[in-house]
Batch of 4 targets.
Target 1
Amino acid sequence: MRWVARLLIGGYLLVATLPLFWMALTSFKAKQDAISLHPRFVPTLSAPAEADPERVTFEATTEAYAKLRAVQTGASASYFEHLGNSVVIGLLSTLLSVALGTLAAYGFSRFEIAGSKDWLFFILSTRFLPALAVVVPVLIMYRELGLLGTHLGLVLLYTAFNLSLAVWLMKGFIDEIPRAFEEAALVDGYSRLQAFFRVILPQARTGMAVTAVFCLISAWNEYGFAMTLNSSGALTVPAYFAGLQGNLEGMPWPQVAAGALLFVAPIVLFTVLVRRHLLRGMTFGTIKQ
Amino acid sequence: MSAHLELERLEKTYPDGTRAVKGIDFAAAAGEFIVLLGPSGCGKTTTLRMTAGLELPTGGAIRLAGVDVSQQRPSRRDVGFVFQFYALYPHLTVAQNLAFPLECVGTPRAARDAAVADLAHRLELGPLLSRKPRELSGGDQQRVALGRAMIRRPQIWLMDEPLGTLDADRRLAMCEFLRVQQLEAKVTTLYVTHDQEEAMRLADRIVVMHDGKIEQVGAPMAVYDEPASLFVAHFVGSPGMNFLEGSLARGSDGWRFVARAAADRAAAPAAALELPLPPALARAPLREGPATLGIRPEFVRLAAAGPLRATVVLDEYLGASRCLHLDTPCGPLVARVAPEAGAAIGATVALDFSPAHVRLFDPESGARLR
Amino acid sequence: MSASPPALRLDSITKRFGRGERAVPALTDVTLEVAPGERLVVLGATGAGKTTLLRVIAGLETPDRGRIELDGRDAAALAPAERDVALVFQNFSLYPHLTVRENLAFPLRAPGRALAAAEIARRVDEAGELLRITRLLDRPAKNLSGGEMQRVAIGRAIVRRPRLFLLDEPLTNLDAKLRESLRLELVKLFRALSVPVVYVTHDQAEALSMADRIVVLSEGRVLQSGTPREIYLAPASPAVARQLGQPAINLIELERRGATWCARDGTPLLPIDAAAARGVADASAALLGVRPEAGRIAAEARASPLRGRVELVEECGPHRVVAVHALGQTLRFAVGNDRSFSPGDAVAIELPPERLLLWPADSSAR
């Protein structure tokens, strides 16, 4: 039994990580090696002696990483500028979503709000439409407001989209924190707002970490709006890569691989950092003590 | 169907080195109601879970009807486990709730219906069978829940503080209900609780556990009257037994107990207490030296003149009786007296105890001297 | 009467939850007083409105109607922070992200209080000593046992030196043995501090032993208020009688037959002119209450016309509880543990008239 399980898990792991592995390999290739019809997957440190077209070796090079700094044909800025856009937009929208979502969720959790169930449903309903269905109206609105191609535009948009998720997730977490926590503080002489910051926020950290991960991933990887609402100003990495398609020189695959690898790294790092919270948070309060 | 249970040198050591159960032995006869009693962390729940198969022992054996089941999985053992939280399924009627455990094990419909009808009759739930749980009162819900847990007749029932979450008054009513059901079903029962009162009321025999070991096994009154150790004497009874520190001395007329003044008091020689010991102890292998004297609160009597003077610190009225908390030169004592015998706080009273109810312990090991 | 106003006075407090048709009354016309230094225990079953009552006093709920006074002054408009009362919750114990010391200091650091750091430290140390938790002070709160947590929770109330303590079943979730010892410590503490206390519980033993005065609450209404002895010995209604005593009081329906009160099956139990029956002299039916320790049972045939058969015997240490099937119901009696009975024994039961309680049969809230 045990070795069958191991085999299955190992097989799945292989399938799941192969694309990542291949991407990493590609980022160290020259363009010819990357687009060769025969797969080349054994890196060597020196150039191959004979140019056998069916060889499996290629010469490892960091050229692709170096070239990330250059402005590509068909683009107006380097990869790193676009990465910067992604970081600014992703972090700001995550921060806003979590902050607003936590406050709204606290309200829904603790106060009697007329029609609160309807409000919550309405908030969730903003997710019913496929996001791309509202691309054109948003485009027209943003053109009128002068938000096209700005960081602010995308930050607001991602926040609006993620806020429903944040409110619902955070409401679940805050519901789990006993009311007595802040009521004790109220009786002890604190105001409602002070009780919220001194007592509820420290308890809600797990929930906020989980919510932040979801919001960040969603904003970080978003492509449709980033592509449509931008020409160049606040182009994020996914849109930037897509924009490289069809330019005169063809797709610079090794650079795309190198850039994508760097693009994945911060998310992985962030998730590992809050992993402890995530594992506890993912049970959504199913274990009550 | 009911089976006898034997635990032999049963041990449980967790991977982190915690020794929850340190080798315990006891046997329950078929149909016997055994209560495992002890404070939290004494290993009683671990013992129960090992018997159920929810945890595996790291040493020793569990035999059910003579068969070693130590390493068997729970479903193979034919045990019924009653948990502390036993919510009813809100979408099923009372009858469906009661039949649910039988459905799980594939009992034929006719047998199921008969069992439900029989149980409903015994629980006096007949008119409620077609109702949904939310239409019942809290007390009825509890009875249905316990009834459901007990509808199957396995070889042994294992109960983990099933009454722990109830209000105190309702808990006692449910104790009686549980005991009547068990007497009728004659299913061997292992019941875990930290409440000595529940244990006394329910058990044929009580197993008192402390720190992963068994302190004493005995019928409720035996445990209460003849505690085997200081721990049992303190833990069983509410309030527990009174203790006075002192030493044993052999006098011309037999053994005497000489109480020591409490540590936080100037030892006034006049306050020293000397008690003759009952003749029953005369043949005990006693030795001169330190000893602890124990006496139940109901045997501490307020007397016009007695060997010990005391000040009343607190007066707890309990309706049917009264507990006076007293401060004596030899340490604090509690006396259970008639409810009319109130005493003003701060008043001085004289105390007397009848030698027949005095128990002696070794202060070092805590073991009973007899 | 002392000249100082009561520490707390509630006048006709009414509180409903929900709106319109489906509103559920939680408290109805609750009127009570707590004298300075008095320990008032509110006794009631789960759902009687005890917790709501405390929350109204603390200012966490606003009553629909009624007046609330603290030390003689109207407190209705005061926010919880301004009332200067301390509340110990049943389930909440401590802030898990703080140490014990920080938990104790938390109420003292409230903005309105403006205490110097040295004063805060002094009070925390003092409370630590009083509750014997000094060695726990620097531990994270989440590493404490249940009893230790509840001690610290009580400490949080003590450090503030409030004008009124409110405690919501602080011992309910603890082990039986721990409950017993902490109960004593609490009474000693309250006596030492001589601060008025409102203590809420469903445990009749706690109520009897801890209270100066008990208020019995049922379905949001005050049924009776008095000293523990008054409430135990002279309950105003069967509902109150059932709340106190353990095992619960035996209730027997009576009807008048000539010069005797008889059970439904005709067994004569009490002469009509008995002292206990004075209050119901004109009624044709009545309800009889017999405390388990009041009845006497004997194995041998006695003169008593009341006979039954032992169903179950339960040990309770100093006494045994014998359940007897008689008069078509189960009656429970407490006897000394020197008397032994077995299931199946035929017994005669004597009911001494001077220890019986009688109410009119239509007594409200049976």
Note: Residues 84 and 162 of chain B are 4 Å apart (CA to CA).
Target 2
Amino acid sequence: MELVTAKTNISRGVLGEAEIIKNKSLLNKWIDEAGTHLTETGNFAKGVQKKAEENFAAIGLPTKRTEDFKYTNIRSYLQDDYAAKNGSASLTESEIENVLIDDFVSVVLINGKYIPEYSRLKNLPKEVTIKSLFKALEEGNEVAIKQFNSGLEKTTNPMAMLNTALAGDGIFISIPENFSCPIPVHIANICTGEAKNFYNPRHLVYLHKNSELTLIESYHSVNHTGKTFTNSATEFIIEDTASLENYILQDEDILSQRNDVRHFTVNTGSRMNSVAISLNGGMLRNDPTIFINGENAEVHLNGLFIVKENCHTDNHTMVEHRAPNCMSNELYKGIIGDNATGVFNGKILVYRDAQKTNAYQSNKNILMGDKSTINTKPQLEIYADDVRCTHGTTTGKLNEEALFYMRSRGLNEKLAKNILLQSFAKEVSNTIKNEAFRTLIEQKIEENIQ
Amino acid sequence: MLEIKDLKVSVEGKQILKGLNLTVKKGEVHAIMGPNGSGKSTLASVIAGKEDYTVDGGSITFNGKDMLELSPDERAKEGMFLAFQYPVEIPGVSTINFLKTAISEIRQYRGLPPMEAKDFLKVLKEKQKVVEIEANLTGRSVNEGFSGGEKKRNEIFQMAMLEPSLAILDETDSGLDIDALRIVATGVNKLRTKENAFVVITHYQRLLEYIVPDFVHVLYQGRIVKSGTRELALELEGKGYDWIKKEFSELAV
């Protein structure tokens, strides 16, 4: 498959020798600090990590001039003196207890590292594999090795390169062919620890042909004593006619800064729905890329951000239609209060061969405060001639006419506002199919709309 | 019940109401007529408490209480209702849930216990019949995708459910065909009692054939320039507003 002229918008390769050396030395510092460099511990990842190091050194951390990071200046969150660390367990079971959800399979990750003793896998069907990604690599798991060695290899995203170079041990989930996992798998991600820690967990989720999975990711802060930066990367492979429901809840403290790269590879006849709910954190960036590689695939990508105080949230999405007869539908909504800032930068890229593509994208925002900010940039890039693509964005204050109407019927201002905001948010929360999790999200939304 | 004295109101520095007086007693129906731009809708909005207006002078009292001190929702809780000229669409909120919330808020304000679900349903069915509104409309999001007639009927339905003691109908007849007008007017007539009152704001006499007023007032350039009985409306129908405009043109100066 050939892409005519388009190239993703990361500027690269124009750095001088001195800057490249600086990037290399920063990277080497982080590699030493992380201390789990795979090139030294196994034979499976040598090439890919070396290559990622070189690629990263050539472009360095994104700056304000990097188009894809224009509204999120990574440098203002992640500085050179952040120390690369790997996740470890330093919490008690009771501290973890209240972020788990009853009835789901619970997988506990602390700073990105899988902690089996806190996880609850007893209801997990034996067909499903859940284990540490490094363990899967060491055991010679072919799928994991193949994917790790090729997955993010071609990325142009410096943060993804950095993740590969510094990869911390994350989670590996595999659903076998023709198996529908009857119970949602909940990954409870807990961020804890001291200031200036820098984590790079790497995860892999593999849905073999005709399998099904509901995967919930939630993000929390426990005993968090200073600003930390997490730069995670997760690959989702959805083989032919498989189906993934993926829900994300970001509900952390103001000290938490995260850049979550997700790559979804969607194959023939498969289906995915990813819903990202961002409520609390210091800096929350979701950076999903969807590669639609097979015909008749269906992609739903939804997001809701309700942020306040000084929170910065960024949804940077890329949907690449590389095959004909597929559909994608994106809906992102934001409620931004106080001094918070929101970013939506969504791009749909339709390759020349991807005829009969249906691609939709919509972003709607409500600004609650005089100092609340949204930067929204919807983009379409189309190289096929027989497609149906639309995008649109609206930003405004809460509808004053509707507020007065409701107040004139006896609802006080706060209640009227709450109802309007909740109905605004519901369009996104309704895309969560799992009822138990949807109910939990609706409660969270209610708590966060004030 | 409602007493408006020397009410002066401006919007962005421009005076719209220039000393308006109006007294409404319970059991009465008052019609306020007037040419476009005379201040009819401003009057309705100010009584309901819309905040885009500046009250420069005068008073609005309702059952002895100073309404200008109260927020729009408190006025509603005191028993006022405004039927909007342009009812607003509220996506994602069904009329039934909206009314449930409104009724519960109003009852709480009045120190009444919450309405039981079965009682609410009973009243709902009864009032749906009164205003001839289809149940599927009330189950949908408030006014979303409704036709002009459906929106107006939904206003009257909400009025029926909230049982205000004073209802102000702001050009409820605008944009209605004759059948819709009849249904709306019949609804209002069924809701008339000795205890409640209506202020019907309209440009045309047409609505007053169905909702027969006790008093008719002509609003012109921010003041009530003529008051009378139903015959005044008929006279306006015959002569048009030019007659008023001529007679009171000195007010413009």
Note: Chain B is about 40% helix and 30% strand.
Target 3
Amino acid sequence: MAAITTTIGLPVARRRSRRAVDILKHPTVVASALVLATMVFVAIAAPLIAPYDPYEQHLEGRLGPPLWAGGSLTHPFGTDQLGRDVLTRLMYGARVSIAIGVMAVLVSGVLGVAAGVTAGFYGGIVDELLMRLADLRLALPFVLLVISVIAVFGPSFTNLIVILGLTGWVPYAKIVRAEALSMREREFIVAARAVGARNSRLMFRHILPNTVAAAIVIGSLELANIIVVEASLSFLGLGVQAPTPSWGNMLGEARDYLMSNFWLATLPGIAISVTAISVNLIGDWLRDVLDPRIQT
Amino acid sequence: MTIFIIRRFLLTLLMLFLVGLTVFMLGHLSGDPVRLMVPDQATEADIERLRHALGLDLPLPIQFLDFIGNAVRGDLGTSLRYRQPALQLVMERMPATAELSAAAMLIALVVAIPAGIISATRRGSWIDGLTSVVSVAGQSLPAFWIGIMLIIVFAVQLRLLPAAGRGDPGSLVLPALTLGLWPMARIARVFRSSILEVLHEDYVRTAYAKGLRERVVLSRHVLRNASIPVVTVTALTFGSLLGGTIITESVFAWPGVGRLALEAINNRDFPLMQATVFVVAAIFVVINFALDLVYVWLDPRIRLT
């Protein structure tokens, strides 16, 4: 590892700019970016573009089929067990998934980068402590841990962000620590120290900016992960609570109608999968462009 | 080498202690574990009685020492709902989870190993393309949704396999497939990149230069050296599967540890929940230790560090 890190310099920078232009040669990445942009737009604009109110029930028109199964344009994706419009609820569900995902990633990214820079920069006992803490977190089964904490504090939008954010810091910390470790002895750090820069300045002005690329790559891959975990929790009834629509709890509610109305379970699943796949593909591409050494 | 093993062993003990501390704290996160256990209509007197009965009126450090002392002796408390030792309940469910995890890992390895080899040695082929598509899908698709889709296709529409429960061997197929997709994606990915890395090593070039045939180079030089990361991922994934089956077990009504944990949470059965978290984490820590020993055996260079 050390041998590789000391050899990067100018050539990498040059390769970077060339690869960034190459994005048009990656149709899957372009498609993923378009899908994601659409999802984000729908999430933000849901109240303006959704055809109905997500809570408006019409019990006489419940379990209406979608367009391709004999439905009509009034409810293109059909209606659910309470007669609510599925398309509308999917649009509002995007808000929940994306908002929780982005905020949890921000929380865990900030924590993880801070822990990683500190551990890598100071080394010694601080490093040892933080890394043991990381090992402990990895030893605890993630879903089980999150569920237990939610059982204690109760499921809510804020609690989900806090819990997913607090538990997701390890991947950032590990990678950023390795970067900081390899940077500690590099000339620009030694030089900055020689002219009298304090530790805090070294960390914030010199080391931190150099770890941003790694943090962005991990963040994008973690975002996909968190979206799926949030959906799983909501599916189990421990995430976003009904009647607030989320892709996960829509799927959970659809379980009772698998025999007769399987699209109720199919559509939110497609929404989650398409979003997660797009985010993952963009994350993979970002890694190739920014820093192919990052192992995830 | 002995020092390495002793150091690792001590670290493992420390880890188990920290796991115990975390599990203990889980119960006290909210400030008052008793209130989590009792139904809403319980009176103050009921709460006090339960608090005293469980020893929760003692100072925290004493409670923690009690907890650790009991845990060492294999006593992880008594389930509030079943009124049986929590550890015993968890262990009763363990075979079902172990069976499911093992089947899932088997499916994952049977697909991932050939896929990894072929996609690394025949880069750009259709198998390579298919492998990368399946890897991305396997890491992105939520397990519970895959499970439901499998139920819709194979149980509801085709009526080939049972939708839920644990009975004849057929009932294992769908849950194992659901659970195996993620490790399959992960292992194939790791194996592929690990082989690609080894293919660039000098000794591989030397082997080719000596005129060895590709098959010999691959089996003697490449696969052996490329398999170390695969051992790691496989073992760690297996460890996390033992705790990560909650969702799959919930979808397929599989009577394993994951469902027990979910039941415990829904019933506010805190001792049982603590026991499941503790057992699963302990298994993971012990697998990690075993893995360190396997490394020493696989790769003598590790002994130096």
Note: DSSP finds twelve helices and no strands in chain A.
Target 4
Amino acid sequence: MSKVKNWQLGREMDYPYEDARPKRQLAYIFDTNKCIACQTCSVACKTTWTSGKGQESVFYNNVETKPYGFYPQAWDVKLHEKLGAGSWQDKEFKGKTIFEAAPAGERALGYLPEEDEYASPNIGEDVIAGEVNKGAFFQGIHKTWMFYLARICNHCTYPGCLSACPRKAIYKRPEDGIVLIDQSRCRGYRECVKACPYKKVYYNMVTRVSEKCIGCYPLIEKGEQPQCVKTCIGKIRLQGFLSKPGEEREDNPIDYLVHTRKVALPLYPQYGTEPNVYYIPPVHVPRDFLGQMFGPGVEQAIATYRSAPTDQKLLAAMLLFGNTPRTLHRFAAEKTDAVGYDADDKEAVRVPYTEPFFERDFFDKKRKVYRLNVT
Amino acid sequence: MTHTVTRAATVGLILATAAALGGGCSGKKEPGEGGGAKEIDAKSTKTVPLDPFDKAWNDAIPVVVDLMPQGVAFPMLQEVKIPKLSARALVDKDWLGILLEWEDKTKSERLQVDEFTDGVAIELPLGDLDKTNPMMGSAENPVYLAHWKAAWQVDVDRGRRTDVQDYHPGFWSDPYPFVAGGYPYPVQEAFESPNARRYLPGVAAGNPVSKLYREYPVEELQAEGFSTLADHQMQNAKAKGVHKDGKWRVVIALPRAVADAANPKLPEKSTQKVAFAVWDGGAGNVAGRKQWYPFVTLNLP
């Protein structure tokens, strides 16, 4: 084992390989407050990449309802039971990561899901935590909750899948940090399926090898955001690149939201893989649940998020979500607009802070009809 | 006569019990009953039979090895499930056949996310017999491997069975992209076009594990150390395995001389070495999670 620095844990940790951060890291921010679980992302991804035979239960992208939705079933609960409790002290994780808790003869602590656990992609969908007493919904704010968690491969800095592959058929691209399985070399051992704590590597029973989200790398290489990001009708997603720790740029929207404002947090950072999909936590969910899921920065993230309407630069970064197919490398908060720039530093998108308001006459003289009051 | 090779024998410590049992045994003994020699003496025969129950195998002397858990490379095996393996060899003019036998009450031949296949592999040095690392060789002294799997035996015996409807008979699906024919779109017939194959990524990438057609349930490979296992472009080996009465009997036959430089040359009156690995799919054995035994001398007549 090597000692590597995991900034999400606030400390060094054990990892089977030397630290080798990519030049820049593919990263995403998902705003859970805006997701409506329409599954457009899931369908876009499935149609693009996993519509073949043997991929019926392969969902590079899925959206599950928390707390009772999972794909595969109970994936996080099962791992937490194995991993045991940990704690955070001054934003330093004091428990064991999946690498530090690896059993004898294994690279990482994990489990292999049973086939049946892939049978219900929408299990627990829209199921709320707790009971709703009669009439509660008419009495103002109620305490029941649930939220939607959109999930893809985290293209981790220290991937569990990669660490466990005895073939070294999994690799992390030095140019952008995308984690890929070499489909010509994988021998279907399923060590990666077992070791990925997020269960985002899938076994294809027809090809007999494992597959995972490829970060839509053909699009990334063209300067475009992935399918799941571009098609999101709720505009909850932004894809870009996270700079190496210490090299963050405030005008990089991903760096700004993750490192500078700390409004977007990694999912289950305690696993130790340094995942690179960052979530803006849901504002209405009990903090202890969110703390387990997103680490110690939840309160600050939510407070920052709530300040967005009066914080022009933060608002500018958030308005870039879902408004351009191009991958943004720089942004600026101009007087009236948020502006995003592509890899060539050309303006790719301009979004007004306030949408223009159009008022039309009640009667359409050209068509000689009355307009209905639609939104 | 039966020979037993123990782990200790490989480091020169021949167990007294094994030595006491060696020699003077009748040819009627079954594998695993004892023996003291540590060499497999291949017997000549007219034609090496691929049938593991062919009577010709009775002429070859089985050697039994005590298998060890693989504990050097990740993932490691923590508990031996297959303690013993019997091996015997026959040769004819063109082929070396090795019959491998081991007890395994559970026949594991399905491949699903949580199901693994039984299997066995033999390994022969391609370089210096005495300097080759039995654990996947090295760049200087690579190794040749022939790997049989129960799942591949099913492919050969009954057609490729790892299809969606084989495991889930009621599974309905609309047409897959560029697929030919109708439901249930069997993988061996409906995905012939290059465009349809694109949606079977492992197949499209030419991964030998993803082969849709397999003539024999064995794969020839080469390795130059851990993580270097590579498929031979020329596949010349043959094999057949049968599970009966809680026991696998598998014949792996290697050509004695082929154009493939990555195959071991097996001339007359030569000395070879052979190592073994066994996987119990039912116990989750896969990859390095295997029982193994290092090189045993193999004498060819």
Note: Residues 4-37 of chain B have pLDDT under 50 and may be disordered.
